[in-house]
Structure to design on (121 residues):
């Protein structure tokens, strides 16, 4: 090899430029296709996320409805029991008061009877 052969000529540089240009053009197209695929995948992922969010919201609403229905049923069954319990407590209070009055009357009767028994005839 001589010194002239170790240097690139203008035509060598032109060929290299053309070759690199074709590669860059090819890579640019490939990059654009990949970016389009990424964009399409992003849109698909957003649609999937929306679908999942919608299903979760539907399940949440359904669950809340079931819980509300269950709670209403429980309260519907407990309410009569609580009313009966309240009625029984009121009756107990009345009975307690009546027993107290009867007790006072009995004491009064006992006092009067004992006075009558001890009184001279």
């Amino acid at each position: 090899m001589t010194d002239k052969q170790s240097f690139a000529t203008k035509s060598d540089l032109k060929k290299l430029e053309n070759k690199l240009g074709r590669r860059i053009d090819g890579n640019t197209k490939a990059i654009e296709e990949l970016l389009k695929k990424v964009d399409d995948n992003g849109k698909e992922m957003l649609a999937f996320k929306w679908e999942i969010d919608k299903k979760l919201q539907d399940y949440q609403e359904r669950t809340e409805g079931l819980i509300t229905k269950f709670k209403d049923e429980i309260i519907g069954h407990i309410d009569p029991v609580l009313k009966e319990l309240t009625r029984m407590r009121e009756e107990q209070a009345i009975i307690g008061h009546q027993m107290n009055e009867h007790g006072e009357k009995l004491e009064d009767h006992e006092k009067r009877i004992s006075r009558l028994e001890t009184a001279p005839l």
